[in-house]
From TrEMBL:
This is AcrR family transcriptional regulator. InterPro entries: Homeodomain-like_sf, HTH-type_Tx_Regulator. It comes from the Bacteria.
Amino acid sequence: MARPKAAEQPATIKMQNAFWELLEEKPYAKITVSDVTRVSELNRTAFYYHYTNITELADDAIASIYQDQDIIGYVTRLIRQPDDIDFRNEYTRFIDIPRYLTSAHRISLITGPHGSTSLSKQLREFVIDIWLDLIGLDRQNLNPGQRLVLEFASNGVLGVLSNATAIFNADGAQWIARTRLPETVSHLINSIPDIIDDVTPDQATPTLEPYLSPNGRNA
């Protein structure tokens, strides 16, 4: 068997690139193995050597975004305290990084009309994990109020990222900096450690006893 040329892309990279190209053309649910092999110019044997199904390919493709330090930096900067950072300069700087723009565009595909609920949820969990790590909280120990704020803030950020084409350019970066969005997200996330559970045990577990007769039926 001939060895691949040094400049030749690995089969997995070809298929991941094909996945993103297809996601731009059609909904995630309609992407097939045949589509991927056609666009990547590989055969089905190559596909099934690396992946069991499209879901595994999608997970692999999306994982590359999670390893992008520029994307992690963007999500991190969203919750920096407002007086710690010059938002206008920071957001304008990002649009000069080609790799960042590629990842941002792919995120917009995940959260856009061709994405899916499962892909968006996976991305939201990624954002939440970064924030929790930065503020030093364990997901398993969050109270309902803290979870609510995280859901609200992360869904809002995903809404912004779904409009990447419109905002990740010179004008868009300036508008993000002019709005109160960064400060709002920052205040929300940094307020989470202060949302404490001061409800007494008796209050925390509502009971139906006052509303039920001794035989278990409504009085």
